[in-house]
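For reproducibility, we list the full input for the acetoacetyl-coenzyme A complex.
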Amino acid sequence: MTVRAVTVIGAGQMGRGIAQTLLQYGFAVTLYDIHEAAVARGVATIAEAFRRQVGKGRIAEEQKEEWLARLAATTELTAAEDSEIVIEAAPEQLETKLALFQALDRICPSQTILASNTSSISITAIAAVTDRADRVIGMHFMNPVPVMPLVEVIRGLRTSDDTFAKVADLAVQLGKAPVEVRDYPGFVSNRLLMPMINEAIYAVYEGVAEPEAIDQVMKLGMNHPMGPLALADLIGLDTCLAIMETLHEGFGDSKYRPCPLLRQYVQAGWLGRKSGKGFFQYE
Ligand code: CAA
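The corresponding predicted structure, in tokenized form, follows.
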């Protein structure tokens, strides 16, 4: 396989997962984050994931070293200038994404594809702040990225067929199944998943059942691999809230109103696994 260069923006759990997957499939990866500590944590987490694979006897030590040798870490956005594609996985805040895409549009050569891993923000709106709306696209990975086979490929109103084909092909090269989706709030994945999670939180809020019981119902009764509350903790409750707000605002329909308990947990800093507490306790 020809090694190609990809920059991943954001070293949070999605960014790291995307970077890890790219490395495993032969790509050279530049991992960017605005915070030095976040980049260091991202690199350490990826290295740990590779060490675990060595420990399980899946890969040789040399393979791990070869994968890590293709990883560069940076806090300078200009490092993206040599990449053929940039995959942005920054927090789900519109202003953050618009500022990043404006900057990337200035930094990267005109042929570079700018993809966003956004879980619900409009690709069309992100594309509109650049001078390359035809080369802006959604590339939405699922968490945990190295394990989940889906990539939702979202076409903004002005995304070209060529950009779509290249990104769908990249997903296939990463061992994933691309699914084509148009640009409406929450796309398909979160339009269906997030109202279920929000409703599970309403069930806690209204005292219908304990979190453990709610998750048991969906695991044992519906064969879900994990319950909606454990899944919310995995995704991050701040991200869940941001997605519900995007659905609520985008469709203007009260059925998407975020549960007040979700909002309160986020205000308290209970963000799920990443903060050590959400609907369940971690560590
Ligand atoms: N990172 C990397 N690998 C992980 C992982 C993680 N966070 N968690 C588990 N894995 C790997 C394990 O190492 C293991 O790999 P091997 O089989 O190669 O050893 C494999 O996944 C299975 O793990 P476990 O046996 O520990 O646990 P499990 O069988 O219960 O699977 C799970 C864990 C894959 C997370 C499973 O519970 C699951 O599929 N849950 C649902 C996940 C889901 O719905 N994700 C989508 C979220 S929505 C989203 O991401 C989009 C959005 O915009 C919000």
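The radius of gyration is 19 Å. The first helix runs from residue 13 to 24. Both points were considered when choosing residues for closer inspection.
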